[in-house]
Amino acid sequence: MVTAVAGTVLIAAGAFWLSFTALADLARRSGVDVGQAWAWPVIVDGLIVVATVAVVALAGQRAAWYPWALLAGGALISVTANALHAVVAADADVPGVLAACVAAVPPLVLLASTHLTVVLVRSRPSEPIEEVVPEPAADIPPRFRAEPESAGRRLVAARLRAEGWSNKAIARHFQVAPSTVGRWFAARGDAPDEQESPKELTA
What stretches of the chain show up as alpha helix (H) in DSSP? Predict the structure, then answer.
């Protein structure tokens, strides 16, 4: 990863320098003051770098169209300007199309290498998180395992028991097995009650 990032940064720096010198010379030929000509390639190629970072950062979001538009515009201006400079400054014995194609390579490489650098930096593998595996509960005795019934049902069952309901009547009321009701009261420390109550007989 470090080697790939370092290589792409080096290539991007070389492409930026070639494009910078061509655009700065084109700005001077176009009447821009010599002391200010350096700012024009910084604006054009700098827009490519900033827009590329923004495109990767906003990937998948609705606002990503704007950096994409800036990226396309900056790349188009840079490639066109480099090609025009090559046509103007090339030797007479070099075809203009060939000079333009050669000059268009640095801004395109700058675009590709900048995007690749940002992608590599964002896709660095994170440190693995140690997974916590819960201890198996197979060796826990059944009487110590949590009951699926809620505490509210147990409280209602206790009130029914206080009113004289038997375990079987309470079990029919909650549609559970009588042994389940027995475990509820065993957890509370109540004595088992398996006899039918008058309320149950009339139910």
Answer: 2-29, 39-57, 65-89, 96-122, 151-162, 167-174, 178-188, 198-202
